[in-house]
Task: structure prediction
Amino acid sequence: MGDVSAPERLPTDTATLNATFCATLVDEWVRSGVTDAVVAPGSRSTPMALALTARAELQVHVHHDERAAGFMALGLGLASGRPALVLTTSGTAAVELHPALIEAHQAGVPVIAVTADRPPELLDVGAPQTVNQTHLFGGAVRWFSAPGPPVAEARGAWRSLAARAVAEAVHGAKGPGPVHLNLAFREPLVGDPAELPPGRDDGGPWHTVGGSRVTVDRAGAARLGELLDADRGVIIAGEGCGEPGAVLALAEATGWPVLADPRSGCRVRQVCVVAHGDALLRHEPTAAALRPEVVLRLGGPPASKVVGAWLAASGARQVVVDGSGRWIDADRTAAHVLHADPTAVVVALARLVGRPRTDAWGGRWEVAEAAATAAVDGVLGTHEEPTEPGVARSLFGALPPTSSLVVSSSMPVRDVEWFGGMQLGVRVLANRGANGIDGVVSTAVGVALASRRSGERTAVLVGDVAFLHDSNALLGLASRGVDLTIVVIDNDGGGIFSFLPQAGALVPEQFELLFGTPHGVDLPTLAAAHGVPVISVATANEVPVAIAASAFTGGVTLVHIRTDRHANVGVHDALHAAVAATLAASAG
Result:
């Protein structure tokens, strides 16, 4: 343990105190394994910005827009599992972090938000750029601390403050998530640090956190084993389902199919993996014939309402396993909820399967999956023009293995889930905590920054409205040194609303005004203004070629694909009809 007695030279003036305090926090963050910080320019945050850039161990990414900076930090944490710092000045600059921290909270992504603040004497007196930043983000953070302006007498607490921020972000009682440090600074803001309070002698962080989320002992697993001892079982593998190999091993042992969300990592050509569950279960005779007795739900839920409704109406005994501490049971049908490590649970269950594996149940799913695959390929093969399901289906084959694909909420995440097929080594990420479309491109930039250390490519599939919502992600993007392919589906408005009852209930003019919302923006020109090269594609065959070429070339490229909102509804209807017809024919 380090010595917390007074250092040889105590900081006394305000500038030195600010600098020493910030340098100590940064030193502790480096000791705790933090590698990246996103800084939004501002005055009051100067002491921390200077301390961050003084450490060569940290990659500092500067962004003009605090909202985009927050999502960039989110993307870094989403891709790496390590908390990234995001620093803002005071006032509404701090408020701009709220959307990203909400997503981090609900998705369980570690982030450390550091907001500079005015000192107490400037609060509630009309001082400029001052808002109440105490508990600014409410219950969306795992931990909040406002230690006040730095004082020499508190130097013994500085390292603990920094180390705890990391510990709470990664190992907090509610699982990983964001923390908020609100740091007040008095002027002057520019100074040099004095000697830092000593850290641990071994160079490690001041606090380390041991243990893990609740696991399942052998007796508990045995009880589950009895519950799950059924021929007609289904595994729903979502984001956070655990190690894919362990999940697939359980499927092999039980003979149960795995309905795999792309974010699960389980969409590989092993055992009975189902990628077209949404399409299969829209066909009522198939949905009825494949009704399970038991459902094991691992991790987050799928985007498909069809799959969710089928599970809710199945009458099956359902077990939910999630290691994040979240309560994931929107339909309130779970008989058992386990806040436990999913990998540990499925490994324990696989060891307890005592009956012979039967192929009949899984074989029925495999036949249906093969029929759906052929039907989808057949319909998409008739379209010479780009289609939104076709783009989603072509991504996995066009991207190099080990790439990361960030998928926007709204229609892109659904198209990838419904029509994406097998993943071929591509990791899929999405902001599905709050399911918003804000910050998607900035999140992808963060993922690309985290991925460049390993030389992996990143792509993002995003709609035009979500792209415009986050167009400030393009600020400085061409010079960030990342490999990122931005695939934009441009149907000049909110395409998902064309699938909702509003589309048929309203006159076209009213629907377009309130829901279609055509924007008329020339997206290639917008990208070019930021120095981002653009590839525009006109045919379906050009889509995978353009994506693959972008990945091969490196750097940042925007692949621009125009579609039609009304025609897109027709393509989806044709796909579902073709799958239903194929299933009916195979059953007859």
Summary: Residues 386-562 form a domain with the Rossmann fold fold (CATH 3.40.50.970). The radius of gyration is 26 Å. The CA atoms of residues 81 and 335 lie 31 Å apart.
